[in-house]
Predict the 3D structure of the following.
Amino acid sequence: MAQKTRIEAKVGIFVFVGLIILVYFVTHIGDLHFLSSGYDLKVFFGFANGIKINAPVRVAGVDAGEIRKINVFFDPASKKTRVEISFWVKNDTKIPRDSEVMINTLGLLGEKYLEVIPGSDYSNLFKDGDILTGEDPVSMEELGKLGRRIAGKIENSIESLNELLKDEDIKESLTETVKNLDKLTNKINLVLDKINRGEGTVGKFIYDEGIYQDLEAFMADLKAHPWKLLYRPTD
């Protein structure tokens, strides 16, 4: 009898500790989706970029659910391979129908997750079982192709420039243009130097104190007697 009582006491202690641990996880972790109510949605992509089942779903950057199922199939209508992703979100997560859905990455090489960027029309929301259309991520292969195309265009431009520079007439014309620009720069510097020294009409106008005082007196008189602008002497 005593042996049975000890066994029952041990079982009771284990059950009690287990309940405490469960309550802790529910109240502190908050990611136990199987204990939360929510609804299911689907989204289609042409390229999934390595995303996996159980990857998080974020709405406006906040964890709101998880991916439950991934299915790859051939679409006869578009004649392309498509990826169907079934995901779950919490009931209090409202997703307008004008929202954008994409596959994102935490950092450069981090975990893949489903990103929902909410729209603005909260009068028209997605419901359980609805289907969304995703925005395909750019693959590394596509980035590589784009980089090669850009590099090819730059190389062609450099080759074309080299061919132009080989033409003696163009080379002579460019040399003459540079010389003319150099002469023009020297002339501008001379004019500015004269102005700084108060030489020439512009220099005198800027640095002559008498002209400055006359102009100041004229402006003061004009402000006091603006009618003079309209006055015409009679013959």
Summary: The chain is about 45% helix and 20% strand. The CA atoms of residues 142 and 148 lie 10 Å apart. Strands lie at 38-45, 56-59, 62-75, 80-90, 100-105, 112-117, 131-133.
